[in-house]
Design goal:
Blueprint lengths: L12 E3 L10 H11 L29 E4 L4 E4 L6 H15 L15 H13 L3 E9 L1 H7 L1 E2 L9 H22 L3 E9 L16 H17 L3 E5 L6 H6 L4 E5 L11 H9 L3 E7 L10 H17 L4 H6 L1 E5 L8 H18 L3 H7 L1
Parallel strand pairs: 1-10, 3-5, 4-6, 6-7, 7-8, 8-9, 9-10
Antiparallel strand pairs: 2-3
Helix pairs in contact: 1-3, 1-11, 2-5, 4-5, 5-6
């Protein structure tokens, strides 16, 4: 079995964020991130500050026939009429990027990414290189199943525009990696896939497991071609075995409420870890529970989680060879003080784990 080479240089434990924050001041959001996460700062997503940073809209620029009504906060693909010329232009851009060219035609503009550009400005001003920078893009399944055509049908069920949606998210990922690779040795990028928590429901009617994996793997291949490290973030319960059969290097799960759900997929998890896959533990609450948490609480939660997975036959050393720690999901639903507490905990965890104490404890 071939091991993933791109995860082997990850540290024992890396602490980073999911993405969204409740701030209306982009600079304040970036300052919070940079102070808490010195080894793996992440790009903030600020949908509270501007609806254009909402995950279904932020990565829509440059996609043919995508329509946004910001006043009513609606969006859809217009599949009516003649769209051949627009598709030809889109695919010409896609081929340029696939051939190693710049993805600047698929950039997220300042208007749609104040958080992204504030983060870029801060990285430029600091003039230093980080071991890792973490970014995120809407996953192709969630984008395609949430955004509809003009008649309300999920665009994922339109063969032409499904391809646009999948390739579009890959192109946005390519731009993010090209942009942030100037500031980091490696760029980690998560595909945010909240809709996968509904896998098996009517939302996925007629959509096979193979089609799900194929769509994920197409975007992941584009990420790998750009030198990024691809992960999948799902904040609810899902078919984790299916995600582990994809070529994602990292699986980010909610370790506060859904750790037990991983135990059903022990065989798939063993294979995933053997290939060099990495679990990203969403161990910091992203609810008001965070107000009552300490670093010690989170370390104990992770240790209990390791015990649970080990009891299912998962090798503890394989689990702790490489680990990532994040909030359970984005923090946009918190108040600013609650988000600050969450990031205080992330900073405390980064310092705690920076000494490799957790792995040493795991071996004892």
């Amino acid at each position: 079995m071939t091991r993933y080479e791109d995860t082997q240089n990850l540290p024992n434990i890396l602490v980073t964020g999911v993405g969204s924050l409740p701030h209306t001041d982009p600079d304040a959001a970036v300052e919070l991130i940079m102070d808490a996460l010195p080894r793996a700062p992440h790009c903030p997503q600020l949908s509270v500050a501007d609806p254009r940073e909402q995950m279904w809209i932020q990565f829509s620029e440059g996609l043919p026939r995508f329509r946004v009504d910001l006043e009513n906060l609606t969006y859809h693909f217009d599949t009516s009429g003649d769209y051949l010329q627009e598709l030809e232009q889109f695919y010409a851009g896609y081929l340029q990027v696939s051939d190693g060219g710049s993805a600047r035609d698929f950039a997220v503009s300042h208007d749609f990414g104040r958080g992204i550009h504030a983060f870029l400005d801060r990285l430029n001003a600091r003039g230093k290189r980080y071991p890792f920078v973490k970014v995120q893009v809407t996953g192709p399944l969630s984008f395609g199943l949430t955004v509809t055509d003009q008649g309300g049908k999920p665009i994922f069920y339109d063969d032409t525009f499904r391809d646009v949606a999948v390739k579009g998210m890959g192109l946005k990922a390519a731009w993010l990696i090209q942009t942030f690779s100037h500031f980091a040795d490696r760029v980690i990028i998560f595909l945010d896939e909240p809709s996968l928590s509904a896998y098996g429901s009517s939302a996925f009617l007629g959509l096979s497991k193979e089609a799900v994996i194929e769509s994920l793997d197409e975007v992941i291949a584009m990420i790998l071609a750009q030198g990024g490290i691809p992960g999948i973030h799902c904040c609810g319960n899902t078919d984790w075995g299916m995600l582990m059969e994809s070529t994602a290097r990292i699986i980010n799960f909610d370790a506060v409420d859904y750790l037990e759900s991983l135990t059903i997929y022990a065989a798939e998890l063993r294979d995933f870890l053997e290939r060099g896959g990495v679990l990203a533990w969403g161990a910091v609450p992203n609810t008001e529970q965070v107000e009552r948490e300490s670093v010690g609480d989170i370390v104990r939660r992770m240790d209990q989680g390791l015990n649970t997975l080990e009891s299912c036959g998962i090798d503890r050393e394989a689990l702790t060879e490489h680990m990532i720690v994040t909030p359970a999901c984005g923090c946009a639903g918190l108040s600013v003080p609650q988000a600050q507490k969450a990031y205080e905990l992330l900073g405390g965890l980064d310092r705690y784990f920076g000494e490799d104490r957790f792995r040493k404890q795991a071996k004892e």
